[in-house]
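Notes from the 1:1 (GR / supervisor)

We went over the backlog. Supervisor wanted to see one worked example end to end before approving the batch request, so GR pasted a single chain during the call. The sequence is below; no edits were made to it. Supervisor asked that the structure be written out right there so they could see what the output format looks like.
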Amino acid sequence: MSVSAASSLSVSATPASPASVEELLLTADRLLAGDLGGATDAGRHRGASLALRTALEICVDRVLDAAVPGLAGATMRAKMLCLRCYLPGEAARRTRAVWSHLCLGCHYHQYEIGPSYEQVCGWRTEVDELVRTLEVP
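Structure output shown during the call:
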C-alpha cells in the first residue's frame, strides 16, 4: 500500500455506532445491487455476507438476552447451541445453518472462490425470514 493510500484511510479511535438490523439488510441489498462502487463482485458478495451475518447475530443476541440475560460474553457458536432451547427446533436449526454458511461466505481465503451472487441472494431471503421469526416483542 502506498503512503498516499495509507494516509487516506481514516481510523477512528472510537467504535462506530452500532447499525440496526434494517440498516444492515439495506447495506447487503445495496452491495448486491452494485450501488456501493469501488469493489469487485467477489468483494461485494463477501461484504453482503458479512452484513447479513451481523444482522442475524444481532437478532440472536436479542432473543437470548430476553430469555437469559448475561450471555453477551459467550461466543456466537455457543449462542447458536443455546438458541435451540428458546426457539422452536426448525427456527433454531435454520438460524444455525444460514449463520454457518454466512461465516464461510464472508471469510477470504486465497485458494477459494467466494460466494456467488445467487448464494448470497438465497441467504438474504433466508435471513429476512429469520429476522421476522426472531423478533422479540
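Supervisor's comment: Residues 1-16 have pLDDT under 50 and may be disordered.
Batch request approved.
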